[in-house]
Amino acid sequence: MVTIGATTQFLTIILSTAGILLIARIHTMKYGVDSATLRARAFLDESFLRDCWRLLLVACTLFLLHAIFELTGLLEAPMDESSLIAVLLDEVTELGILICIFILVYKWLKLVSPRKSFERKE
Fold this sequence. Notes:
This protein is mainly α. It has helices at 4-29, 35-44, 46-75, 84-112.
């Protein structure tokens, strides 16, 4: 029987692997882009900056919630750890953090990759 924990762990493995591959691609592609051009793209694009800050805020908030859930679990021994709500909140916060990081990495990939690769050839 597939549980919520197993499903979220599977999604975590998939997103983590994809994130590592995207980060490796960004790392290799950044050598083909002038650093001044990359800085200009990142800091002149207002939507990119806004999205990055929002994603970081959401990820940090989810991380804080996850830490609070863990702390209350440690302090309240009688709390049933196997309850569905506690497991669901724990897994959803972990997955949310990973999704925010993955989206942020994807946005950086789009920024680093050459514009001509996204344009349609006529």
